[in-house]
Prior knowledge:
This protein is of the alpha/beta class and 287 residues long. 45% of the residues lie in helices and 14% in strands. Helix 4 packs antiparallel against helix 5.
Amino acid sequence: MDGALDTPVLDDHMHLDPRHGRGVEAAVEFARSGGTHLLVVNKPSWHLLEGLPEDPADFREVFELTVGVVSEASGVLPGRAWPVLGVHPGLVSRLVDAGHDPEKARELMRTGLDVAAEYVEDGRALALKSGRPHYEVDDAVRAASNDVMCHGFELAAEADCAIQLHAEGGEDLTAVTEWAEERGLSARRVVKHYAGGRLAGPTKSVISNKDELETAVELATEEGEPFMMETDFIDDPDRPGAVLGPKTVPRRVRWLREEGHDESIRVAHVETPADVYDIDTEGTLAE
């Protein structure tokens, strides 16, 4: 056990799989290492269902599993957990490979986002998740994916919430945040999951490798750039610890403290979450 830290410690993007993985036990490990708050993103639907989703009820099954394990996680954390619900952009390829045309795949994925938005609207989820494939696809699939992502921006604007994006890497996604702003969603409420330390456009949710965090801290200190930290822990029994394990963010916070970066810790775990998600990681420690 690494022990508690005297600060909120938020992992901005973790998966908990109550059906096949460790589920709430991963949250226990996070808490024992000093973690306090989690944003839990539903796993891709094909990991939780027996097949590919076909209708709104299938997406609802995935979301209900996530909401349930988040409730359990809140019971073991010093702070709390929140669900982030949506449709993994890789679903488009699986649907097309299964015989759907891109337009039909697009409509099904938009439907999934519509269902996720219902959970945000009724207070059962904090934010949405969408994006586009991070790998090469043909023009029709790319166009369908961009349409799904922009539909997510519209829904997030209507629900007044943030949206996490799974998308390609790189250091400039301003074109994507311009699409969001055209639909009424502030760029600061577009969160690039698995971001590097340097990124123009969305708010960075930095994968918690030391080199990327060093870059993010430098930009936060010198230019006031916001960022958050994540593991993208996928809770897959066949890949234990992937992408990064539940202990990683608390341990990186401890390392940042040893390096004298207290202000950047506050940026990542208090100020940016408040600005992006409207959550109070300090106040919820006292609940």
